Amino acid sequence: MKIDSIRLINFRNYYDISLELNENINIFIGKNAQGKTNLLEAIYMCAEGKSFRTSRDRELINLNKNEAYIGAKVKLDGIDRLIEIKLKRDGAKRIKINRVELKNLRELHSGLIVVIFSPDDLKIVKEGPGERRNFLDNVISQIKPVYRYNINKYNKVLFQRNNLLRTDKLNAQTKSLLEIFDSQLIKIGKEIILTRAEFIEKFSPIAEKNHARLTTGREKLVLKYNPSVKFSNKDAIENSFLEELNKNLEKDLKTGNTSIGPHRDDIQFDLDGLNARVFASQGQQRTIVLSIKLSEVEIIKRERNLYPILLLDDVFSELDEDRRWYLINSFKDIQTIITSADISNIDRISGVRRTLFYIEKGKIRRVKG
Ligand SMILES: Nc1ncnc2c1ncn2[C@@H]1O[C@H](COP(=O)(O)OP(=O)(O)O)[C@@H](O)[C@H]1O
Ligand SMILES: [Mg+2]
Predict the structure, then answer these.
(1) Does the pTM of the predicted model rise above 0.90?
(2) Does the beta carbon of 236 lie inside 6 Å of ligand 1?
(3) Cross-strand pairs, 224
(4) What is the predicted pLDDT for the residue at 353?
(5) Which of 305, 332, 350 finishes a domain?
């Protein structure tokens, strides 16, 4: 897949720009706060229908304007597709694919798949389980779109269950309602747990391979799934989940939260047998993030037989020469959009087609390629 062109109107600090991208490497150079991440954010919007930086769409509209527009002409399997997003300060977001408006924005299937890698991704390794669940959920949704639907459904039931826990007292009526919520939670939760377990099993060896290459065989990376509901085999999940819900009911009634379930899952990155979150150095943690991002691209290629678009936000300068080469060579056949404050590490990329742009105060100038 590839993006042919982009048009932005009143999006963040862009007033009206049109861009054509090449199918290999597109490099955007600009100082701080000129609009580099904003551009990648707009591209990400076309894939996911939402930003990776904020859940408040209003922030995306230029401060002096009331409406914003993002348009992208993309090619999927050789077929043209126009993705258009309109944001309004006082109204709902609207998304059109080939001029037909989408009804359900929670499950956008624009067909465009992007993998973004930014310095912020370090939090996947370093911070709490929520960051790792987000990573997990995003990657799985890219290779199995129905998974996102299950997550949304699960969260809806969870929300209802927690609301019920917060009502004053459980009577016969609310008790039977709780039973219904529990059985729904267990049914959808089991699907989620199984999908996650299956995914980690496939993903871990890919990450191990990429990590071994990046560290010339010095470090062994293994991903482990730590489900909140423990189970010995898949037929035991439902019973075990129900038992735990019952065991924790008293506590859950006190806190108004459900303490057991996939919404409390975690994954662990083990480096040579030790939890990288706790024991790895910052440099090792950065390499883990690079390994899992490379693996994300690889598993999408493998499972869906398509090439996602890679967005590299300001990560190039952090990498040493060998890793930059490894990255570029891994992605020869996929469209890549790189941003950087500094051209010096990038202008030596050769052997692939590249176009160079400069970004300054929301204006983009093409200089080469
Ligand atoms: N809604 C908005 N309207 C106008 N300007 C915005 C808006 N949101 C962000 N900006 C501006 O965009 C700039 C940051 O852009 P960003 O792409 O994050 O920078 P960088 O080039 O460092 O990645 C800042 O100057 C910020 O004030
Ligand atoms: Mg930035």
Answers:
(1) yes
(2) no
(3) 268
(4) 83
(5) 305
